[in-house]
Amino acid sequence: MFGFVLFDLDGTISKSELGITRCVQYALESIGIHESDQAVLRTFIGPPLSTHFQEVYGVDEACAEKLLAKYRERYNTIGIYEAEMYEGIFDLLKTCFEKGIKLGIVSSKPKVYLDQLLKHFGIDAFFCEVFGPALQKKETDTKEAMIATLLTQYPKQCCCMVGDRKFDILGAKENQVTSIAVTYGYGTKAELEAVQPDIMVDSVAELKKVLLGF
Q1: Which of 7, 68, 161, 195 would you label with 170, given CA atoms 20 to 30 Å apart?
Q2: Total count of domains within the chain
Q3: Is residue 168 annotated as a catalytic residue, yes or no?
Q4: What is the CATH number of the domain that holds 141?
Q5: Which residues share a beta bridge with 181?
Q6: Closest by alpha carbon to 18, among 76, 72, 65, 84?
Q7: DSSP summary character for residue 40
Q8: Domain membership of residue 51 as a residue range
Q9: Distance between CA atoms of 108 and 46, rounded to whole angstroms?
Q10: Looking at residue 47, what DSSP letter applies?
Q11: Are residues 38 and 136 in the same domain?
């Protein structure tokens, strides 16, 4: 059994697709792009948004930052609450907490939003560590760097990282901690298989068996 479990948020703990994709659409409308392809919009769940705007739409950094500001304009008041937890996640987190397993969040979502959402879901008390970038993201705010910071306090041998995107798995591998991919989130199975996680699960029930043994 793991002594310290790190979780991604979007696509791992929470179903956040509606809020994120609507906010991306809202931002793009400000520069005249009307994006209706849900497959494209879903790719914005997980990676750093400013970089992803540049990769998907070919905009420069200045434009991407303006899009990020428009995204947050809606997300701050509406989009953040257009999310819900996956069925069974609350009980999983509660049981881990009660059994003395330390829990942490490592997400590309800004920490100010993480704190709001964990409180909104009623799970903030379960987590001893919450890592996310500042609103003005720095180079040290990558998944790899955030996990590395946590490992200065906890031995990597008892640690695992749970996430639904390749960024979560690669961050774990970079720090030599066990990587657990969940396929019920927003990353495709092909994306996850390509980065070779140590463990792959298809449901919250399977994740519970891995983390708790039952």
Answers
A1: 68
A2: 2
A3: no
A4: 3.40.50.1000
A5: 163, 200
A6: 84
A7: H
A8: 17-81
A9: 7
A10: S
A11: no
Reported as a single tens digit per residue, the pLDDT across 151-204 is 988 888 899 999 999 999 999 999 999 999 999 999 999 999 999 999 999 999
The encoded tokens of residue 84 equal 């819900």
Q: pLDDT tens for residues 75-124? A: 999 999 999 999 999 999 999 999 999 999 999 899 999 999 999 999 99
Answer whether 99's CB lies under 8 Å from 69's CB: no
CA separation for the pair 99, 93 (Å, rounded):
10
The length of the chain is 214
Catalytic residue among 8, 10, 164, 168: 8
What is the pTM assigned to this prediction? 0.87
3-state helix, strand, coil in the chain (%, to 5): 50, 15, 35
- What CATH number has the domain bearing residue 24? 1.10.150.240
Q: Compute the distance between CA of residue 26 and CA of residue 81 in angstroms, rounded to an integer.
A: 16
- Domain match, 189 and 202 both: yes
Q: The tokens of 53 are what?
A: 């705007």
* Coil, helix or strand at residue 177: coil
| Alpha helix stretches (DSSP H) within the chain | 17-29, 38-42, 49-57, 61-75, 89-98, 111-121, 143-150, 166-174, 189-194, 204-212
Tokens of 109: 């979502």
Give bridge partners of residue 179 from the DSSP assignment: 161
If asked whether residues 95 and 124 sit together in one domain, one would say yes
Q: Is 162 helix (H, G, I), strand (E, B) or coil?
A: strand
